Records
---
Amino acid sequence: MEKKTIRTGIVGSGFAATFHYEAVRRVFGCNVEVIGTHTIDAEQGKAYAQERDIKFFETLDEMLDEVDVIHVCVPPVAHEPISIAGLERDKFVICEKPLTGYFGDGTDEFCGDTFPKQDALDAALESVDRLIAAEKASKGRLLYAENWVYTPAVQKEREILEKTGGQILWIHGEEAHSGSHSKEYAHWKFCGGGVMLGKGCHPLTAALYLKRVEGRVRDGKPIRPKSVTARAHAITRLESFRDEGHIRCDYNDIDDFSLMHVEFEDGTVATLAASDIVVGGIHNWLEICANNHRAICNINPNTTMQTYNPVEENFKDIYVVEKIGTKQGWACTAPDEDWVTGYHQEMEAFYGTIINGGQPESDLLLAADSISTIYSAYVSAERGGAVVDVKNY
Ligand SMILES: NC(=O)c1ccc[n+]([C@@H]2O[C@H](COP(=O)([O-])OP(=O)(O)OC[C@H]3O[C@@H](n4cnc5c(N)ncnc54)[C@H](O)[C@@H]3O)[C@@H](O)[C@H]2O)c1
């Protein structure tokens, strides 16, 4: 049977747009024809388009005229308007994490450190509601690009839960490294928060997903988050922090260390750390402690391959592993990092939904629960770690 062809456009032309493009090229369930890109940075967008021999669109609307799907690979502040524009035109929208958030009050004085976090929670949930309404009114749908859901390790855990009916008692996990590459990331007004949102969303959403799977398998309904307790800190902005050049430390008004402790409806728990203060490469892992098994998902680093390099210079043209500070000595070198990170499986699954219908594992409601939990966690952190109820979707 001849494969269907789906026409795609990528919004943004930076880091995420690059790995999205590579991932769609490895989709084999249909032909994905990347028509073009639209970006506000026209110079960057044109270079991205030229390199890939695709079109550069001056406006989003022009691109929407020519595609069935858009990939939203722009900073979080632009996720909602771009996603809604796509849904209003009945397109499928593949939206990067975090789904949405609260990006300040528009004033120059806005400071992420001092404003009342309840405002952020209320505004973020209003944004979620607008996205849910837009999806309901659309023939398209929003596919939430939380790659942790699609990592081979987390999908293997799904299989274990489905085949054994296991009950998860405690999930703990972490996403950490030594600091984001993005300039905007230093400011709450562009990213909607700090590390608790930007990185914490990854292990949190994987944990929410697995409890969802557990409930679906045993009782036909997901187990949802009920409350959260959290702490958030700005370690690199402490007067006592001593910068030795290994950790990014130019943040304006965001947290760079966070802990969320989530209680689910069934009384079980998840404890998720996220930080920008960890050297030695990205540290992404999730451990599942169930009543009938235990699983440790080492997303990055892992020991698929290890290399020892006695001379830094020898590896100058070799990609080793994300955010590693040096190529000298032993390293958990990644032979195919995008695969272990779930980018390919995610796109295969999303394009499967686009051509065949069906329920994606990572959808708008999972993203909504994630946003609701994180902004409730900011309220908790502001109250010194008090328990805050989580609205679930
Ligand atoms: N899943 C992951 O592993 C992962 C990794 C990195 C980034 N991300 C997410 O991807 C998104 C983009 O991050 P990035 O690292 O690619 O940032 P980036 O700064 O590298 O690129 C952002 C791009 O968006 C464009 N842009 C900004 N505002 C726009 C607008 N209103 N309309 C059109 N284009 C606009 C910029 O010109 C730029 O091309 C963020 O939401 C981030 O959280 C996800």
Note: DSSP finds 13 helices and 15 strands in the chain.
---
Amino acid sequence: MAGVTPLYDAIWDDYILWSVFVGAIAFGWLYHHSYFYRSEDGESPNVDNLEVGVFPKEYDNLRLEVTWTVLPFILIVWLTYISWAPLDAVWSQTGPDGFHGSECVEGTSSNNWLDENGYVHSECYWEIGITGQQWFWEFDCYDLSEDICLTGYATVEGELKPLLTLKTGETYLAAMTSIDVTHAVKNHGFGIMEDVVPGQDTYLWMPAVEDISFLMLCAEYCGDNHAYMTAQINVE
Ligand SMILES: [Cu+2]
């Protein structure tokens, strides 16, 4: 999965790697035993003399049980730990203590860049608006110039969808709300998502580091046409 934020790409790769590794052990073990220990022709089906309702504790193996409890526990703690790493980027504060500085003024630029750990830094950011409702998205560029932020419509699989065109190298902070029920902006191209809640403002960083084009989705079930609640985002 290609995102413009290597931070999330790295975590994605880690999770896929561990899923394949754990899956290979679990399913390998399952299929091996299903095949290797199946009953032979003519054999009594109850070769171990198992009784219904009686746990065969004479077959226990403490070392094995401790191993399959402790090793996955360590793995889960590790995966949780590496998932925490980018939370400060997801919820970076504005101003000098954050990753993206203060709001840009006309004529300046975010000039965003990646550090060696994959975090995006910016000199300043542009605020835009996203409003969710059943079942479409509305973008608002406020009074930003058209080369920084432009809204329109795009034809996606034969249907007209809202279009947001952003500029490569700029960083955006979306102020979001909903006018009816809870939705969620899923910007997989930026590797992030955030809920959109009626009566409440939520915020989402959108660092446009490189040219990319993707469909923004709704990631919170919101009724009949939830699956079609999409919008086109182009970074160019
Ligand atoms: Cu939805």
Note: The chain has three helices and 13 strands.
